[in-house]
Amino acid sequence: MREVWMSGAAYGGFRKRPGDGAAELAGEALRALVQSTGVEPDRIDAAYGATTFGGSLMTQRALQGIGVSGPPIFTVENACAGGGSAVHLAWVAVASGMSECAVAVGAENLSDLGGGTLPLSSRDVEVGVGMVMPAAYAMRAQRYLTDFDVPADVLDLVTVKNRRNGALNPRAHFRQEVDIEDVQASRAVADPLRLLHCCPNTDGAAAALFCSAEVARSLVGPSIRVAGSAVRSGEFHNRHRDMTWPDITARTSAAAYEMAGLTPADIDVVELHDAFSISELLHTEALGLAERGRAHVRLREGEFARDGALPVNPSGGLLSRGHPVAATGIAQINELYWQLTGTAGDLQLPGPSVGLAHVTGGGIYGVDNGACSIHILCA
Q1: pTM for this predicted structure
Q2: Engineered SS bond to 84: which of 111, 124, 248, 359, CB 3.0-4.6 Å?
């Protein structure tokens, strides 16, 4: 396996765009990617697109808009981990030598679904008796707060932090800061979660370019190395489930750290899957970035803030950027690309050199989550 370089990132921002299809949104991101990198369309020799609700052949339709047709093109579905999975496949293509220049793109239009919680398969046992994602994360929150004797206001602090970060991000769905009183005054969704503890459904697309070293050197923009790329699925069992421990995140991160030859102590900045405020606490612990049951302490002491020892979701996370399902994983990686190349504008942190992107998703009976992808990027 050879080194893989990320040589470009593009997404124009997430917001409500009713009527704009996934292929159209993906096409916009791809055109911006080509323009910013200077890559010639005929050099793109593989493409991997992700969508959950965008229909079949989304990637082929989007690539046609930039003059790419003929090479291997795939549309993949892996729930919220779809975008990260597309990046992993692009990485595999380049690392294996099968491709010199591969594109990953994720796109989603959720406005056209009509609002409410995202639809899940009615054939699933738990979904069939009424399970929805806010309820699942509410149960996780209840267990975490109870098992580790944590005050409930820690959930508010996650939202306040990430909305403050997102206020600086021109690509975020929400760009308004909130305070604890705002969060506590928002309507109840599933106890203890309130509306502002939940990420917004939104629309958008994100694209990224992955190349061999030779191709990367020929492009106009900066490149960073993909040091680790891992995808895992949930392990099925029907015994007791520890809802405070995302096992899938722990297993995927262990594989990514080993591949990169790094440890959690080496990470300078993190973009992780905070679909609900409790998620940030659970995943920082499973990623090895905080001791079990102690992430809330590090959060309260400011260590996860933009100016803290380990900035977590400095772009605003899903709570601020929004969550267009399959586009999220690529947007996270793009935000890290800009941080590590020193081109993040108002979001720029002081000199990070190693970033970790984490996305997980999909509810299936008997597993923690359906899929998880983790990428470690090095400047």
Answers
A1: 0.95
A2: 359
